[in-house]
Amino acid sequence: MVNAFSFACTACGKCCNSPPAMSLPELFGHRDRFIGCLAIGRVPRRRLGERVRVGRHETVLDETDIAAFDSIADTLLYRAGDTFSIMTQGYDYPSLARCPALADDGRCAIHLSGKPVTCEVVPLDPLVPDKLQHLVLAGRNQSAAYLGADCIQEGQPPDATLIIAAGEIKDANARDALARRRRSLEREREVWGRAVFESLRKDLFDSPAALARIPQGGFLTISIVPALLVVASTSARCRQLCLDYIDSQLALIDRSIEQALLRRRLDDRPVTQELRGFAHAYQRARALLATPLPAMGSESSAPSSLPTTEAYLSGADH
User: Fold this and answer.
1) Rounded CA gap, 129 and 107, in Å?
2) How far apart are CA 111 and CA 278, in angstroms?
3) What per-residue string of b and e applies to 86-115 under the rule 16 or more CB within 10 Å gives b?
4) What is the spatial distance between Cα 4 and Cα 199, in angstroms, rounded to a whole number?
5) What is the distance between the alpha carbons of residues 138 and 142, in angstroms, rounded to a whole number?
6) Tens-digit pLDDT profile for residues 37-87
7) Helix H or strand E encompassing 162
């Protein structure tokens, strides 16, 4: 079978070694468990004829591949010279090496109560065209082996579910999860992403010095407050939802820093400093959101209609 990979999750928890990317409504739903942030990454621009190689798997990108990458960029990403991703995600101390939702037995504590869609997408990547997902799985197969897991396998062994073969996603659940994650990212872009991108353009995306802060193959993490201010400007109800979220986040940050101080790890210090920065940003946002709505912007300038945004924040339109 050509470029075929199968997946058999045993819920061992080995890949749950950091907080996942999460939509803003998902973060609101788990406000007492996950500290939220904005993660900004640089997405490589693919070129016609480019060779993409992962292990023994290699593809030369053709016009169809480039068109597929461009379609993803046009609907899910942001362009300012380079192409960028802007996503909300959970944030925690890397030294803990575990997702905040991972229970003591190594199982997901929220598997049946609001598990993030991005977790359902594993091991696929919503920013890669379906035809090239085998390269994603080839790379993650190597990572899984490094972690001591054997969940991704080439071919179709009897004890695993065939995920992809010959450029097609074969598993219906995988197709559905991937489609839902892409719809979620498109919705995020519509509701707050484009407005946040424009608000950061001058100080980040148009500044080579600032862009140098985005690590190669990684993310620049900043406060989630810019996204909150966009959705809070829509209505008094959205503003109150954001205020409630901020209060929960301030309490969670306090608890996280207190636990870190007890661990006395030197490598925790930069994260503690960043968390304190998040807390200061939340406090400033809280003071701003205490201002009556007209002072923050009119309904006509809101990124989307009032009922739609309220439904989005509550998770009712997902």
Assistant:
1) 30
2) 28
3) bbbbbbbbeebebbbbbeeeeebebeeeeb
4) 43
5) 7
6) 999 999 988 999 999 999 889 999 999 999 999 999 999 999 988 899 999
7) strand 161-165
Q: Residue written as tokens 């085998």? A: 134
d(CA 99, CA 91): 9
How crowded is residue 7: how many other Cβ atoms within 10 Å of its Cβ? Answer: 21
β-strands 152-154, 5-7 pairing? antiparallel
pTM of the model: 0.90
Domain boundaries, the chain: 5-224
- Tell me the C-alpha to C-alpha distance, in Å, between residue 22 and each of 4, 19, 204, 311: 28, 9, 23, 17
Amino acid letter for position 100:
P
* Rg value, the chain, Cα: 20
Q: What is the H or E stretch that residue 228 is in?
A: helix 225-232
Amino acid letter, residue 226: P
Q: Which of 184, 37, 33 is nearest to 113 (CA)?
A: 33
